[in-house]
Write a structure and sequence with these properties.
mainly alpha
Length: 167
């Protein structure tokens, strides 16, 4: 029992380091996005906040899965992603103003369904990343690429239509 606990300590330290970096970056960038778009239209600010909130979660999940290829510690993935998922679930009430804005904004039902799909996709990616470790040693790289491409495709579509157009 004691030996298995000692084996988890490096994973716990890696998780603490990554989570500290996440929380520090989350707070500073969230504030800088608000400051950068404070003089713009409100819809533009909320569009970028929405993408940042869930795009960052996507990025961290992907980084965790890629780090797992290097360190091969399942505890690292489970500890980090459980903590981040709990953070996002508890923070949904704090972030709900961003989603409520778009629900009350004159959007068609397909766009609202796309937003819901995007949020569910990110949470499903986190859950899938943890569950697959019970069946395989690592998450297949093709699965990581599929989740990331789906989410990035939606993010580009959303920026093109509701942010500053890229193309």
């Amino acid at each position: 029992m004691f030996q298995s606990l000692i084996k988890v300590i490096p994973s716990l330290l890696y998780s603490i380091l990554l989570l500290a970096l996440f929380y520090w970056q989350f707070n500073t960038q969230f504030t800088s996005i608000i400051n950068a778009f404070s003089q713009e239209k409100l819809s533009l600010l909320y569009a970028y906040l929405f993408l940042y909130l869930f795009g960052l979660f996507l990025l961290v999940i992907t980084v965790v899965n890629l780090i797992h290829y290097l360190i091969h510690e399942k505890a690292f993935v489970v500890i980090t992603l459980c903590t981040l998922t709990i953070f996002y679930l508890f923070s949904l009430t704090d972030f709900s103003y961003v989603m409520e804005y778009f629900i009350h904004y004159p959007l068609d039902s397909y766009t609202i369904m796309g937003m819901i799909f995007f949020i569910v996709l990110i949470f499903a990616y986190a859950l899938y990343s943890m569950v697959i470790l019970y069946f395989k040693d690592t998450m297949p790289l093709s699965h990581i690429i599929t989740f990331v491409l789906l989410a990035l495709g939606y993010m580009l579509y959303f920026i093109q239509n509701y942010g500053k157009p890229l193309f």
